[in-house]
Amino acid sequence: HFKKSLLAYYHLFSELPATLRNILRKAAGESLNVKFELTDMNMLQRRLERVFNRISFSVMLLAISIIIAGDLISFGLSAGKSAEMHAFNIAILKTGLVLAVIIVLGLIVSMFRSRR
Q1: Which of 41, 52, 68, 84 has the greatest number of beta carbons closer than 10 A?
Q2: CA distances (Å), origin 76, targets 49, 69, 70, 73, 108
Q3: Residues 29, 31: Cα–Cα separation, whole Å
Q4: pLDDT in tens, 75-104
């Protein structure tokens, strides 16, 4: 069995230079045609859609998180100005935290939906 395999590899390697020469001639003569077939294209398309949906959702989540963080920092820096401003800052802080929780829950739901 080993001898047959070795002989098959010998024939394969002995034909390799001629095969490569033919491919290069066809490529130089612009008559080289290459054909690719993708089996199960629907599965690949679904996977790509999932990947891009996750990426777009992650980018939106990042943008909203940056905006909320900027608001919280700016309101935190101006918190000591007056009692009214302090109450306003607390309301903004609570709203920001509620939005963050909603975003995280949305992300979790989206992850579970995409696994189906």
Answers
A1: 68
A2: 40, 10, 10, 5, 29
A3: 5
A4: 777 766 677 777 877 887 788 788 878 887
CB count in 10 Å sphere of residue 87 = 10
- DSSP element (H, E) containing 23: helix 2-28
What does each C-alpha distance from 84 to 45, 50, 91, 95 come to in angstroms? Answer: 54, 46, 11, 17
- Other beta carbons less than 10 A from residue 53's beta carbon: 13
Task: Look at the pTM and tell me if it is higher than 0.70.
Answer: no
Q: Could you tell me if 96 and 72 are in contact, meaning their C-beta atoms sit under 8 angstroms apart?
A: yes
The residue among 97, 104, 99, 96 whose CA lies nearest residue 57 is: 104
Residue 15: CA atoms inside 13 Å, Cβ hemisphere, count? 7
- Among 72, 77, 68, smallest CA distance to 102 is for 68
Instruction: Render pLDDT for 26-58 as a digit per residue (tens, 0 to 9).
Output: 888 887 788 877 778 888 888 888 888 888 878
